[in-house]
Amino acid sequence: MVENRHPDKCIQVMCDCRESYNVVSTRAQLKTVDSVPPLHRQVIIVLTQLESSGGFSIAHRLTHRPSHSAGLHDWGPPGTNHDPAIDHITQGLHSPRPI
Q1: Which residues pair with 41 in a beta bridge?
Q2: Distance between CA atoms of 52 and 62, rounded to whole angstroms?
Q3: What was the pLDDT predicted at 58?
Q4: Which parts of the sequence are annotated with region: Disordered (predicted)?
Q5: Residue 95 DSSP one-character state
Q6: Measured between alpha carbons, how far is 41 from 71 in angstroms, rounded to an integer?
Q7: CA distance linking residue 65 with residue 48, whole number of Å
């Protein structure tokens, strides 16, 4: 989860879990990029063990930067705030919420 306590800046967050082993993501990808609005929090990814009979490992790299405007800029598709997109299936868990 990311919590943006800035009153006037978005926080762009890149979470890279691609070096994890035997896990599945609620967003169907192991790398996510999000723009979290000012004074909001967001669950960016939830990982769960895929095959219960084997071991698993979770590795993550979290990179963030402030931005004066919404959007992913050079971190994602133009005009988007989330990659992968938050659809009707994942919006209940992954949509940004006011603090």
Answers
A1: 3, 97
A2: 26
A3: 96
A4: 69-99
A5: S
A6: 16
A7: 27
Convert 63-90 to b/e letters by CB count within 10 Å (16 or more is b): eeeebeeebbeebbeeebbbbbebeeeb
Which residue's entry shows tokens 């402030």?
66
Q: Where are the domains of the chain?
A: 2-98
Beta bridge partners of 47: 25
What integer pLDDT is reported at residue 52 of this predicted model?
Answer: 87
Tell how strand 23-25 and strand 61-67 pair up.
unpaired
Look up residue 11 and give its two tokens.
Answer: 């926080």
Contacts of 56 (CB under 8 A, 6+ apart): 20, 21, 22, 23, 49, 50
pLDDT at 53: 87
Which tokens sit at 27? Answer: 């967003």
**Three-class secondary structure of residue 84 per DSSP:** coil
pLDDT string in tens for the chain (99-residue length): 999 999 999 999 999 999 999 999 999 999 999 999 999 999 999 999 998 888 999 999 999 999 999 999 999 999 999 999 999 999 999 999 999
